[in-house]
């Protein structure tokens, strides 16, 4: 299965690369939010567009043939920089940066105007996106990763744009299936709850990977 590979980069160099990746990601994230809410005159919008197109042309001077994939260092550091939820180099990603404790993973993050569904509220599909990732991350953290087989969400109240928290934990495992649960909450309380079944796919079972040491935690 392509997309998961080892790319050895010395620790110091990796830290430097990470700063650059985060820098450009954050700048484009700010650009996306500004594009949604700007109220400047059209001439300024058109001037900004010209500059953005010039920046895009610089970035496209050289590019990888595929998507970014997931890249591992042998020290366990993992680069998931293209991921739609946690990818620091992906401006579509908020990004949500997970922390892990004994029995759960969590993250505190903020969603801006580019994630709006109903006015002032986060789009339900974006909620699903984040819950999918946090539950999947809990499965990885428990040493039982998998592809999302089934994800059920109960939207209990609207999730206001702004600061929020997500967390997830493992309910149980049954063979190749990991049953995870999680939620997203704001100052208003729990907004959405999820249950998911994460399944170690056949190709990964056949590789017989050492799940804990190979995958590690980001
Ligand atoms: C990723 C895992 C592999 C590990 C690789 C190593 C490193 C990973 C490192 C980092 C990962 C980083 C982050 C992860 C964080 C977030 C994750 C985001 C997740 C996604 O964004 S992911 C995209 C959306 N996702 C898909 O794109 C899935 C498409 N689909 C498939 O890839 C297959 O469909 C699959 C694999 C689901 C099953 O295929 P399969 O051939 O392995 O299944 P098989 O028939 O052997 O069934 C085995 C047992 O699962 C039951 N079962 C089967 N399908 C089920 C279902 N849908 N729901 C509930 N139960 C189901 C059967 O009933 C049987 O149960 P029983 O054993 O009890 O009979």
TrEMBL record:
Q: Which Pfam families match?
A: 4HBT (PF03061)
Q: Which InterPro entries match?
A: HotDog_dom_sf, THEM4/THEM5_acyl-CoA_thioest, Thioestr_dom
The reaction(s) catalysed by this protein are: hexadecanoyl-CoA + H2O = hexadecanoate + CoA + H(+); (9Z)-octadecenoyl-CoA + H2O = (9Z)-octadecenoate + CoA + H(+); (5Z,8Z,11Z,14Z)-eicosatetraenoyl-CoA + H2O = (5Z,8Z,11Z,14Z)-eicosatetraenoate + CoA + H(+); octanoyl-CoA + H2O = octanoate + CoA + H(+)
Q: Which residues form the Thioesterase domain?
A: 120-189
Q: State one molecular function term (GO).
A: hydrolase activity
What's the superkingdom here? Answer: Bacteria
* EC number assigned by the record: 3.1.2.2
Enzyme class, UniProt record, top EC level: hydrolase
Lipid bilayer topology: Peripheral membrane protein
Keywords noted in UniProt: Apoptosis, Cell membrane, Cell projection, Cytoplasm, Fatty acid metabolism, Hydrolase, Lipid metabolism, Membrane, Transit peptide
A biological-process GO annotation:
fatty acid metabolic process
Q: What GO cellular component is one of the record's annotations? A: cytoplasm
Q: Which PANTHER family match?
A: ACYL-COENZYME A THIOESTERASE THEM4
Q: What is this protein called?
A: Acyl-coenzyme A thioesterase THEM4
Protein source organism: Gordonia insulae
Taxonomic placement: Bacteria, Bacillati, Actinomycetota, Actinomycetes, Mycobacteriales
């Amino acid at each position: 299965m392509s997309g998961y590979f080892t790319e050895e980069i010395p620790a110091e160099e990796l830290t430097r690369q990470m700063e650059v990746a985060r820098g450009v990601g954050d700048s484009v994230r700010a650009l996306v939010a500004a594009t949604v809410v700007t109220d400047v005159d059209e001439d300024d919008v058109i001037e900004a567009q010209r500059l953005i197109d010039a920046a895009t042309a610089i970035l496209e001077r050289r590019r990888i043939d595929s998507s970014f994939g997931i890249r591992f260092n042998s020290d366990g550091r993992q680069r998931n920089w293209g991921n739609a939820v946690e990818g620091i180099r992906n401006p579509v990603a908020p990004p949500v940066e997970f922390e892990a404790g004994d029995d759960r993973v969590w993250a505190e993050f903020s969603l801006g105007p580019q994630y709006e569904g109903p006015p002032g509220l986060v789009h339900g599909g974006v909620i699903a996106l984040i819950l999918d990732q946090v539950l999947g991350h809990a499965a990885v953290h428990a040493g039982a990763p998998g592809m999302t087989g089934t994800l059920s969400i109960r939207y209990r109240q609207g999730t206001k744009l702004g600061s929020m928290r997500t967390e997830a934990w493992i309910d149980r495992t049954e063979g190749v299936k990991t049953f995870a649960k999680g939620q997203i909450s704001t100052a208003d309380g729990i907004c959405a709850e999820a249950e998911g079944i994460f399944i170690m796919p056949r190709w990964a079972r056949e590789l017989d990977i050492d799940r804990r040491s190979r995958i590690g935690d980001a």
